[in-house]
Amino acid sequence: MIITWVAFMACFCSFAVGTRYGFARASGEKLDLRARLILIISTAFAVVHLVALVRPRSGPKVAIICVAIYTLSLLLFWKCLSTTRRQQLPVAFSAHRPQRIVREGPYRHVRHPIYVSYMLAWSACPVATGQPWPAVCAATMAVIYYHAARSEEQALLSGPLGPDYLLYRRTTGMVLPRSVHGHDDHCEVARHRAG
Predict the structure, then answer these.
(1) pLDDT at 48 over 60
(2) In this model, does residue 67 exceed pLDDT 90?
(3) CA–CA distance, 79 with 98 (Å, rounded to integer)
(4) pLDDT value at residue 120
(5) Mind listing the domains of the chain with CATH numbers?
């Protein structure tokens, strides 16, 4: 359906513009090879998704769900950029380091909401089409984003923000809020008091 194709294009064009202008790099810094590989792989996978969306194997109800997932992805992505507009976060694998830990907006709930927004977008096509290749692309991108997030976290933990980030990491889930994946601060406090 054309609406899913339009929603897909809105997401990925937003990601391209947002990534170019919404993230910081050190002065004169070129994209790291790993970041360039992510761009190349994601562009190739975007083509796979576009082709799959031309011939979805599902009906209008599933298309509505797909558009809702793309819309949620867009809203989360732009909320993240709005939250960090005063102090842009570094682009993946950048030498640039943030000056503080962002804990506002979506970052209150998860440490990597940008990657969550990307994964929502990648997961919409397999839902809409029922085809295996978009699902393989989404799974591959999930692994790539996980490694990028871990790399960013290691850089933060080894820098001056390390102790502050460690506390943030203990209280905030990586891609799911703590209460969603069964571990929240109240349980931690209760265990600490009982011990």
Answers:
(1) yes
(2) yes
(3) 18
(4) 97
(5) 2-194 (1.20.120.1630)
